[in-house]
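Protein modeling request. Please complete all fields; requests missing the sequence field cannot be processed.
Requester role: graduate student
Desired output: 3D structure, token encoding
Chains: 1
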Amino acid sequence: MAEVIVASEAGACFGVERALDLVRTTAREACGPVHTLGPLIHNPIVVDELAALGVTAVNDPSEVGEGSTLVLRTHGVAPSVERAAVDAGATVVDATCPFVKRAHRAAERLAGEGYQLLILGEEGHPEVEGIVGHAPEAIVVSGAADLAGIELRRRVGVVVQTTQSKANLRSLVSELVGRVDELRVLDTICEATAGHQGACAELAKTVDVMVVVGGKNSANTTRLAEIAAAICPHTHHVETPQELCSDWFANAERIGITAGASTPAAHIEAIKDAICGMARG
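Delivered output (281 residues):
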């Protein structure tokens, strides 16, 4: 039977676990409706589980009213959005990941010190929009190639979406060195993200098949799938056990599993159990 191995660092990080605890406690104790501003995390299964507890997602603070509780999701929001939630009469519970908060403070600091601020991240991603809200003049770049259309100033500062890769940051910094007089980089990549990515790469080198578990709308999970696929061609990204195909494991002796930071341990175990069943069959 094939050996099934879970990466040494995989699954829900501290920020996600903290947010889930906050929302579940709020759902139990709140007297009125409980909402999250957008999905709490990028994991459709978890969002459905919260809906079963009566926690629904809204897209704008204007959708809630007096007596409601609005939970700010892990990705964080701009200060103006938080003010709008308070003005709407909702009780606000802040579930923003502490590492995202660190990125907010870094952006404010560099912008306040007069640096031309670059945010390395995905344009339109909720976390990036939240960081921009703390430094409205910032420019979002997805990588070194985006610098071609930017008129760089003498002093440039960089902050990073927490789920970016170290390799992408190194590439951007390498391109900036020599093009500006002063460069200040605040590496705001989440420690869990870096650990997950390193463990994923190491495991992918040693297995015949890799399975990446987590939301397909999750930036950090998608990045794990990209890292794994670059090393192990037989890489598959799934959200549920039902997506697994026994043919993937037909001739595999070693099967690796990793999971994004928004994937609870129970989801990983469900995938592992399903793969073991297929491998036995």
